[in-house]
C-alpha cells in the first residue's frame, strides 16, 4: 500500500481547498461521482455529502510558547483525529488570555482547545466555547501520543468517533457541563467535508481518582474487539469559568493540588526526614555525654547461687606422679616362648 | 476575635512570620486596634491569627444555567455519544474473583484493572451503539477496496509490526533456550544412569567370571544370564537377537579356547592364596586347642605343636637367623 492513493470518491486536497467557500452551499454536488462509484461496491456506505453539513462546529487547537515535543505531538494528533479542527500559530505569553477569544473569532471557530505550558514542565489545557460560553481549565498529565509503538491500532483520518462517557458524568452538575463541552468539541459533525463516512473508533472519557481519563480505541470487529489507537492523557480539573477564558468562577476543584505545591510537599517531606535524623543523632550524642552514675551494688550477683550443700574444695598442692610406661607388654609371652625352645 | 489571614500556609511559615504578623498587627496600627476594641469587635485576652478555611466555589445554579445555554439540541446521529457502565467482565466472573470495582471505586494505581475498566466501557458503548448506527445507515466496517488516508502512516504501522514481531522472536528464543537447557540436564541425567548401569553389569560379570575361575562355582550361568533375561523380557520377536547373543558368546569362547590351546591356560598361575573377604573370614585352619595351650603336656608334642603352631615373631626369627 503506497502512502497516498487516489481516494475513491474523495476530492484531492487541492480541489477541496479551491471549493471550500462553496462547499457549504453545494453540499451534494462535488462527490456525486462518488455516489455512482460507491454504488458499484457490494456494501454501500453513506456518501459523505449526500446530506448537508449543518452542524457548524469548528475547533481551534493551538498553544502558547514554551511547549515541549510531547505537547506538540499531542496537538498534532488531535488535529489529525478531528477533521473539524483548525491550527494557529503559537501565542505569545505576554498577551492576556482574552485575546484567545479574538483569535477564535478571526478563525471563525466556536470552540477552542488551548494548551499552555508553564515552567517547561506543567501543561494546562483550556477548553472553551468561544463567544460567551463556559470554559474550563485542566492540568494535563500522563501524555502518550499516537506515535508510540505500543499503540497498535489505526483509524481512518477524519472518521467520526463514538463518544463513551462514564455514568459518573451524570451525577454532578460540573461533570454534566463538562460532558456537554466534550461532546460538542470532540464529535465530528456529520457530513463534514473532511470526514469519512465510517465510524471506526471510539473516544472514552472515564472518571477515576477524581480525574478524567481519555482513551481512543479502534473498533476491529463487530463484536467489539478493540485496539488502542490514539493519544491518551489525563485531565485534572482546576476551575470552570462562566465566560470564555475569564468571567466568574462557577466551580473550583477541591482536590486539585497545583504541581508547584506538589513538588513543594515532596521537598518538605524530604527535608523533614533529614531533620528528624539529625535530631535523633543529637539526642544520642547528648545521652552519651550525660553524667553517668556509678553502680556499687551488683544486682545480678546472686543470680547463680543455688541452694545446695557446700562441697569441700580440695586444692592439689603436689604435682601428680608420672605414669610408668610399660614398654614391653608381651615380655611374659616372650619368656615362655624362649623357655619352650 | 478571629483575624483572617490568608498568607499562612503551614505551621513553619507561621512561626517564621510570627514576628512579622505582629508587626503587621501593629501596622494595623494601634489606633485602629483601639477603635476596634472600643467598638467591641476585639475582646480582651489573646487574639490569635487563624486561617479561615478556603471556600471552594460550587455555583450549581450558575452551572445549570450555563448548561442550558450551551446545550444544542442535536439529533443523536450528530453527536454519537453514549453513557455506559463497563461491560461484563466474562473472564474474571468465570474465574470467580470479583474485582474491587464492584463497589464503584476503581483504584487508579492498579494499571491493569484501570485499563481493563476503560476497555470494557468502550466495549459496552460499541455493543450498544452498533444497532443504532445500523438504523441510521452508518457502518463501522469499511470495504476491502476502500483506500483512504489513515491517521498513522504506513511507515508507522510497519514500525509497529516490526516491533511486535521482534518481541515475539525474543520470546520464542528464550523459550527455546530454556527448553534446551532442560533437555541437556535431562540428557545428562540419562547418560549418567546408563553408564552406571553398564558399570554395574560389568562388575557383576567380572565377579561371576572370577568365581568360576577360582573354582567356587562351576556353573556357567552368568553367560546365559543375559540370554535368559532377554528371553523373559522380549516375548515374541527377538529370538533371533537372543540367538545372535548366544552365538557371540560362543564366538568369544572359541577364541578363548584357541588361545588356551596355544599359550596354555591363562590366568594367574600361582594365585592360590588370595587376601579376599572369603579368605579373611575363613577360620577353618584355626585350632583353638593349640592356640590356647600355654605350656603344653608333652614336650615333643608340645614342641612340635609349638613349632607347628607357635611360630615365633619376626624379630625373634631374625635373631635366630643371625645367631645360627
What does this structure look like?
The complex is a heterodimer of chains A (341) and B (324). By secondary structure, chain A is α+β, with helices and mostly antiparallel strands. Chain A is 28% helix and 25% strand. Chain A contains 8 helices and 11 strands. In chain A, strand 4 and strand 5 form a beta hairpin. In chain A, 36% of the residues are buried. The model of chain A is unreliable at 14-42 (pLDDT under 50). Helices cover 63% and strands 2% of the residues of chain B. By secondary structure, chain B is an all-alpha fold. Chain B has helices spanning 11-27, 30-39, 60-70, 76-79, 90-95, 111-136, 154-214, 221-233, 239-263, 277-281, 288-292, 299-309, 314-323; strands at 3-4, 49-50, 81-83.
The separation of the N and C termini of chain A measures 121 Å
- The number of distinct helices of chain A, counting runs of at least 4 residues, comes to 8
The biggest beta sheet of chain B reads: 2 strands, parallel
Q: Extract low-pLDDT stretches of chain A.
A: 14-42
Write down the overall mean pLDDT of chain B. 77
> What is the CA-based Rg of chain B, rounded?
54 Å
Overall geometry of chain B: elongated
Oligomeric composition of the shown chains: heterodimer
Structural class category of chain B: mainly alpha
Radius of gyration of chain A: 42 Å
**Largest sheet geometry of chain A:** 11 strands, mixed
Strand content of chain A: 15-25%
Strand content of chain B: under 5%
Quick one: overall form of chain A? elongated
Strand order of the largest sheet of chain B: 1-2
Share of helix among residues of chain B?
55-70%
Q: How many beta-strand elements of chain A?
A: 11
The sequence of SSEs of chain A as H and E is HHHEHEHEEEEHEEEEEHH
Amino acid at each position: 500500500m503506497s502512502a497516498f492513493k487516489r481516494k475513491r470518491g474523495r476530492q484531492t486536497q487541492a480541489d477541496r481547498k479551491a471549493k471550500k467557500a462553496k462547499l457549504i452551499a453545494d453540499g451534494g454536488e462535488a462527490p456525486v461521482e462518488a455516489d455512482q462509484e460507491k454504488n458499484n461496491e457490494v456494501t454501500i456506505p453513506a456518501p459523505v455529502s449526500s446530506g448537508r453539513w449543518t452542524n457548524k462546529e469548528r475547533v481551534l487547537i493551538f498553544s502558547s510558547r514554551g511547549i515541549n515535543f510531547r505537547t506538540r505531538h499531542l496537538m498534532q494528533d488531535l488535529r489529525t483525529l478531528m477533521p473539524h479542527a483548525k491550527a494557529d500559530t503559537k501565542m505569545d505569553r505576554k498577551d492576556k488570555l482574552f485575546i484567545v477569544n479574538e483569535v477564535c473569532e478571526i478563525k471563525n471557530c466556536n470552540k477552542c482547545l488551548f494548551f499552555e505550558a508553564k515552567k517547561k514542565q506543567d501543561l494546562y489545557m483550556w477548553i472553551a466555547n468561544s463567544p460567551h460560553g463556559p470554559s474550563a481549565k485542566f492540568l494535563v498529565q500522563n501524555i502518550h501520543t499516537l506515535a508510540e509503538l505500543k499503540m497498535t491500532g489505526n483509524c481512518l483520518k477524519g472518521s467520526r468517533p463514538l463518544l463513551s462517557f462514564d455514568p459518573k458524568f451524570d451525577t454532578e452538575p460540573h461533570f454534566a457541563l463538562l460532558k456537554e463541552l466534550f461532546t460538542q468539541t470532540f464529535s465530528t459533525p456529520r457530513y463534514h467535508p473532511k470526514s469519512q463516512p465510517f465510524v471506526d473508533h471510539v473516544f472514552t472519557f472515564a472518571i477515576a481518582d477524581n480525574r478524567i481519563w481519555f482513551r481512543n480505541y479502534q473498533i476491529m470487529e463487530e463484536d467489539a474487539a478493540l485496539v488502542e489507537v490514539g493519544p491518551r492523557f489525563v485531565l485534572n480539573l482546576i476551575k470552570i469559568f462562566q465566560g470564555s477564558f475569564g468571567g466568574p468562577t462557577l466551580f473550583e476543584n477541591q482536590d486539585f493540588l497545583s504541581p508547584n505545591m506538589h513538588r513543594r510537599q515532596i521537598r518538605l517531606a524530604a527535608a523533614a526526614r533529614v531533620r528528624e535524623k539529625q535530631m535523633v543523632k543529637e539526642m544520642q550524642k547528648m545521652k552519651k555525654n550525660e553524667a553517668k552514675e556509678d553502680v556499687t551494688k551488683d544486682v545480678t550477683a546472686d543470680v547463680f547461687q543455688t541452694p545446695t550443700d557446700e562441697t569441700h574444695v580440695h586444692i592439689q598442692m603436689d604435682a601428680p606422679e608420672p605414669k610408668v610406661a610399660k614398654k614391653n607388654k608381651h615380655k611374659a609371652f616372650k619368656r615362655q616362648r624362649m623357655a619352650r625352645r | 476575635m478571629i483575624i483572617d489571614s490568608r498568607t499562612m500556609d503551614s505551621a513553619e511559615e507561621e512561626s517564621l512570620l510570627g514576628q512579622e504578623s505582629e508587626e503587621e498587627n501593629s501596622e494595623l496600627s494601634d489606633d485602629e486596634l483601639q477603635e476596634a476594641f472600643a467598638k467591641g469587635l476585639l475582646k480582651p485576652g489573646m487574639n490569635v491569627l487563624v486561617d479561615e478555611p478556603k471556600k471552594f466555589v460550587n455555583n450549581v445554579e450558575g452551572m445549570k444555567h450555563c448548561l442550558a445555554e450551551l446545550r444544542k439540541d442535536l439529533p443523536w446521529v450528530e453527536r454519537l455519544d453514549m453513557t455506559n457502565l463497563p461491560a461484563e467482565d466474562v473472564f474474571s466472573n468465570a474465574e470467580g474473583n470479583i474485582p474491587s470495582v464492584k463497589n464503584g471505586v476503581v483504584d487508579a494505581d492498579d494499571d491493569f484493572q484501570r485499563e481493563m475498566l476503560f476497555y470494557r466501557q468502550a466495549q459496552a458503548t460499541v455493543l450498544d451503539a452498533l444497532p443504532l448506527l445500523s438504523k441510521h445507515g452508518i457502518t463501522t466496517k469499511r470495504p476491502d477496496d476502500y483506500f483512504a488516508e489513515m491517521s498513522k502512516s504506513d511507515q508507522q504501522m510497519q514500525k509497529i509490526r516490526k516491533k511486535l514481531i521482534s518481541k515475539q522472536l525474543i520470546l520464542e528464543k528464550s523459550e527455546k533456550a530454556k527448553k534446551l537447557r532442560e533437555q541437556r540436564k535431562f540428557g545428562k541425567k540419562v547418560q549418567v544412569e546408563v553408564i552406571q548401569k553398564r558399570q554395574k553389569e560389568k562388575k557383576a560379570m567380572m565377579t561371576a567370571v572370577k568365581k568360576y575361575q577360582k573354582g567356587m562355582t562351576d556353573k556357567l550361568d552368568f553367560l546365559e544370564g543375559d540370554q535368559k533375561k532377554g528371553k523373559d523380557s522380549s516375548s515374541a520377536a527377538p529370538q533371533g537377537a537372543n540367538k545372535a547373543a548366544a552365538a557371540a558368546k560362543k564366538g568369544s569362547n572359541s577364541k578363548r579356547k584357541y588361545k588356551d590351546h596355544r599359550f596354555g591356560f591363562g590366568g594367574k598361575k600361582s594365585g592360590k592364596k588370595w587376601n579376599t573377604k572369603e579368605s579373611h573370614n575363613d577360620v577353618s585352619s584355626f585350632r583353638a586347642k593349640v592356640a590356647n595351650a600355654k605350656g603344653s603336656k608333652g614336650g615333643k608334642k608340645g614342641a612340635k605343636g609349638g613349632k607347628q603352631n607357635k611360630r615365633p615373631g619376626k624379630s625373634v626369627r631374625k635373631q635366630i637367623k643371625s645367631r645360627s
